């Protein structure tokens, strides 16, 4: 599968100085890792069942016809989820990540920790065509995913 390069302008906000530039960590990775932009000594501890909004100190200018979606990192610690957000191409404010602790223990977040991934993708125009039947697949109507959930 081929991919195309999408150029995105990024502006660091003051509290992000010294953080790593969001980047795809491996060849072929879809997401760019976003780091927590907290003060060096600051720790935000998220209690079980609670949530926190974590700044990333990045603001971006997406090209028209694209969107970004934020989600959790692959090396994520168990029982955490990040709110997935879709931002319009016209948004120029700071990207922030809402983390939710679904675990039984408190979850500390520190400066420079990778907290989410951002995927930038083109937006397709879609035309729905009403039909009486759909083509058959191996999964058919059994479950929404490979876990049958």
Strand content: 35-45%
What integer is the average pLDDT? 80
In terms of quaternary structure, what is this? single chain
* CATH homology-level superfamily: Deoxyuridine triphosphatase (dUTPase)
Q: Indicate the low-confidence ranges by residue numbers.
A: 72-79, 82-87
Number of E-state strands:
10
* CA distance, first residue to last residue: 28 Å
Cα-atom Rg, whole angstroms? 18 Å
How would you describe this protein?
- By secondary structure, the protein is mainly beta.
- The protein is 0% helix and 37% strand.
- The strands form 3 sheets. The chain has a 4-stranded antiparallel β-sheet with strand order 1-4-8-6, with no helix packed on it. A 4-stranded antiparallel β-sheet has the order 2-10-5-7, with no helix packed on it. It has a two-stranded antiparallel ribbon with strand order 3-9.
- It is extended.
- Mean pLDDT is 80; it is low at 72-79 and 82-87.
Question: Features of this protein?
Answer:
149 residues; mainly beta; four-stranded antiparallel sheet; extended
């Amino acid at each position: 599968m081929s991919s195309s390069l999408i150029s995105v302008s990024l502006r660091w906000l003051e509290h992000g100085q010294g953080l790593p530039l969001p980047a795809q960590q491996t060849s072929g990775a879809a997401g760019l890792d976003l780091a927590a932009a907290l003060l060096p000594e600051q720790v935000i501890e998220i209690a079980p069942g609670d949530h926190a909004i974590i700044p990333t100190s990045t603001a971006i200018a997406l090209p028209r016809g694209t969107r970004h979606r934020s989600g959790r990192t692959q090396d994520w610690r168990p029982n955490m989820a990040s709110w997935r957000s879709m931002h319009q191409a016209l948004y120029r404010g700071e990207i922030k990540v809402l983390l939710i602790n679904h675990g039984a223990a408190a979850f500390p977040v520190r400066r420079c920790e990778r907290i989410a991934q951002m995927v930038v993708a083109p937006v397709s125009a879609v035309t729905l065509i009403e039909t009486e039947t759909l083509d058959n697949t191996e999964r058919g109507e059994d479950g929404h995913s490979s876990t049958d959930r």
